[in-house]
Amino acid sequence: MMPMLLHDKTAVITGNPYGIGRATARLFAAEGAKVVCIDDSDEGWTPAGGEARDTPRLFADVSDAGQVAAIVPRCERILGQVDILFNLAGRAEGQRFETTTLETWQRMVGRNLTAAFVCSQAFLPLMKRRPGGAIIHHGSIDGILGNPALAAYSAAKGGLVALTHVMAHDLAPYGIRVNCISTGAIRDGVARPKDAGLVGLTPAGRTGTPDDVARVALFLASEWSAYVNGANIVVDGGRTGITQGCYGS
């Protein structure tokens, strides 16, 4: 029997209390980690089969440095130290560049980029207590290629990739690795009208699931990725591996 990949590890997951967040919390717990989830509300949360009932859920606006600073001591009391931080918080609002308001811009940068910066800095003292830590950011393929319907969101997610590279360099002396997962068309079981079009652009022939992302997060959180640092792993079924002009020709 193989040992659990996250035996004796602790993890904080920010944002998305369902979907990817729920799948990752469940998988981390199954692999031996003690997990705390942080989100700004419990909207949309319902118990799921196989849920780790002893996983604490705390609430804070993770883009607000003051609220995050206040919640760190609570995590410390629960976990002792933090080995893994998954900055999953994010939200998309559709606006083209010329119609993007300053308010939307600030909201998208705050939720999708500033939150990762704030949480990483706030939890860093707890992560420095034990070498071998891992920070994982949740990016998007829109941050790689850009999406004209999501101007502010694309810019924020693109900044997250650059932040990953810088943090990987700066935190390496502490034994902390920093990587990013950029996803595309991940669905939580709810069918959407545009899914058929996305499947048509995806070589894998389907949309992704939260478990598809959670398994990559487990890899990046574990010793299996001990020599992976500063990487941006794309989980999109192959959509960014081809161009629309070539695909289907």
TrEMBL record:
Residues 9-189 form the Ketoreductase domain. Pfam families: adh_short_C2 (PF13561). SMART domains: PKS_KR (SM00822). InterPro entries: KR_dom, NAD(P)-bd_dom_sf, Sc_DH/Rdtase_CS, SDR_fam. It comes from the Bacteria. Keywords: Oxidoreductase. Belongs to the short-chain dehydrogenases/reductases (SDR) family. PANTHER family: 3-OXOACYL-[ACYL-CARRIER-PROTEIN] REDUCTASE, SHORT-CHAIN DEHYDROGENASES/REDUCTASES FAMILY MEMBER. This is SDR family NAD(P)-dependent oxidoreductase.
